[in-house]
């Protein structure tokens, strides 16, 4: 296993991200607060460069590569958001990027990845092994693999979102009782766990996952890394990793309070609420934290709950269907 | 004519709004900047309390009422956003509110107005006079009329959005070359004109209107208040006032650079761009400034353009249609 990153690595990542990542707003809405009888702070990572938090980790990893190490550029495998983050970071560093994406990835994520100058290779999520494909291409090209979550610099980069939440809340004189973080491989959760345990240790950190893909919730209960039975079939296309990462779980297991789970209907209701009341476009996987708050999966009365709205890359057609209640 | 508000009135409004209005983020997006070869700063008033800037002016006017003056509460006439702003401000002040709304107002605006505890009375936009209806009801009830734009405290309240733009930009070391402000009766434009002429006089202030409802653009050219021929028939339901206000035009005429005009197709493209790239829900009337930037109606190369995205209250069905290209 590679080294486990520390809180200091999150601080270092923050310096590296300055002027490159967007300092996304921490949004509070009176109607939402009233509804849950508490304070909800939405960290709008859907407003991040490339439409999700993934640029943070990608930039933290890729900006440190030198021309010799990465003479063949970078290669990544991703369901979509990491792809865009890597493509944008590589483009800024003037490195070629190739992304291995599942063939059922939302079109907007494939198109956006290409718009950042990356080459896209698709594979069948059910029958092919994306890591194998990526490793073979990286060997052939002399390229560096940028993994989606189980990597110290990726985790440290994602943790900068949590650091910002703590600081933006403190500026308003607020301390955060709990933070809800969407979990796929667990990189965003692990980064937030490092940030909060380092700077706001009383905050309870929770992963949030869709039903049927609750590997973190089960792993936190059993104490070992559990796998999902399915690899497809959730509206939350960004949250389909088969199991927690080795490094991410080593960070998360001792630091997380618990794993929350939400249904597809709860996710859709949260997306409609975000549209109608927050005026934010949140993709299904990015809306699980808000879904957990609205569905009462965590106590909110008199408490302050931060929610990482991790991305907003949703196909227009799907978004329209959800608005129309289909 | 009532008194013309000054820059000091905007400063006073800002103090009154503290802790009540949302300090909405000033959002910058790398893809948008690259596309226009300049810097675009989006003042996301769609994230304001009640989903539009209108809460600012409503709170500034209503929070100063005493129980004797407003013993019968407040009455307003509005195409929707002012209605919600007045209803929410009155609710916070524990005053009853009655809103006279056109019968073709988007359902989301009627429902939201009622959700803030207000009574809604509808009228036919083509055949009835909303001011007459509102005045009659206010007389009967001993209520205070809160006009939508032609009122010194309303204008000063709306101007706080411009003050925030100047200060948020200055925090990042940026000065603003031009600001684009949606215009209906001209209250938001007038408030911004006061704020910018008071604190950032080099910034060029522009009104932006939809085709067919370009009363400000024509009035600025002719030097007198021109009327629109039509009162219905634009997707921009928030921008259908028949003519500039008396007070607002007295402020705007000497301070505005020019009036810009955008087509309905340009507005729809801007809304889709906001969805796909900015991840913001912007209503048609709120998107005219972004539409002007994207359609090249103002020079952007090497310049910094602030855009007031004034609201996000759009019916889900209409939004879905626009996403689907209909």
What key attributes describe this structure?
homodimer; 326 residues; alpha/beta; Rossmann fold; 6-stranded mixed sheet; 4-stranded parallel sheet; 10 strands
Question: Any chance you could write out the topology, listing elements then pairs?
Answer:
2 copies of one chain form a homodimer.
Chain A: H1 7-17, E1 26-27, H2 30-36, E2 39-44, H3 54-62, E3 74-77, H4 81-92, E4 97-102, H5 107-115, E5 119-123, H6 130-141, E6 144-145, H7 152-171, E7 178-182, H8 187-199, E8 204-210, H9 215-222, H10 246-255, E9 256-262, H11 264-278, H12 288-294, E10 304-309, H13 316-323
Parallel strand pairs in A: 2-10, 3-4, 3-6, 4-5, 7-8, 7-10, 8-9
Antiparallel strand pairs in A: 1-2
